[in-house]
Amino acid sequence: MKYRISVFAATSYFDGMYMRGTMKNGSVNTDITHNRLETVPKWIHRSGLQIGYRKISALLQYNYVAESYSDALNTKTPSANGASGIVPSYHIFDINLAYRFNNNLNFKFGINNLTNEQYFTKRPAGYPGQGVWSSDGRGFVASIGIKI
User: Fold this and answer.
1) pTM of the prediction?
2) Which among 55, 104, 111, 140 has most CB atoms closer than 10 A?
3) How many CA atoms lie within 13 A of 88 on its CB side?
4) Residues ≥6 apart with Cβ < 8 Å to 42
5) DSSP string, 85-120
6) How far does CA 147 lie from the centroid of its chain?
């Protein structure tokens, strides 16, 4: 077959919340009943389009992660040390290209975070330190595959 086209998608929906409970907030116990679970985005979506022609193939992948809270108190405004507050949603595109010379040799090249999106995924309060876990910027990868 000369041409190949495939499309894929995977979506997750999480509606996690505390059914009841309290949490120490300074010197006060604060009710967290019905607060959203920390570090759990409501939506995670991945999709892609792969196209192939003879020995060449290309893959475009899209990733979306919705915003989430960094703590059980559902703090919205970032703290001075960055350890609490909203973790914003983000969108990422990746592209991968491959060329198969024969059944035993191929070359692959990819660009991750194609649009160089600036985002972060967590607000740690402890190790490795308070603040945010920033994303990698645009990245490139290349590989040669040899089957022996």
Assistant:
1) 0.84
2) 111
3) 12
4) 13, 14, 15, 36, 66, 68
5) SEE--EEEEEEEEEEEEETTEEEEEEEESTT----E
6) 32
Residue 36: Cβ within 10 Å count = 19
Residues 90 and 53: beta-carbon distance below 8 Å: no
Q: What are the residues whose beta carbons fall under 8 Å from the beta carbon of 76, sequence distance 6 or more?
A: 85, 86
How is the beta sheet containing 105-112 ordered, strand by strand? 3-13, 43-53, 56-65, 90-102, 105-112, 139-146
Q: Are 121 and 131 in contact (CB under 8 A)?
A: no
| Full pLDDT tens readout for the chain, 148 residues | 689 999 999 999 999 999 999 998 889 999 999 999 998 999 999 999 999 999 999 999 999 999 999 889 999 998 888 788 899 999 999 999 999 999 999 999 999 999 999 988 877 766 666 667 788 899 999 999 999 9
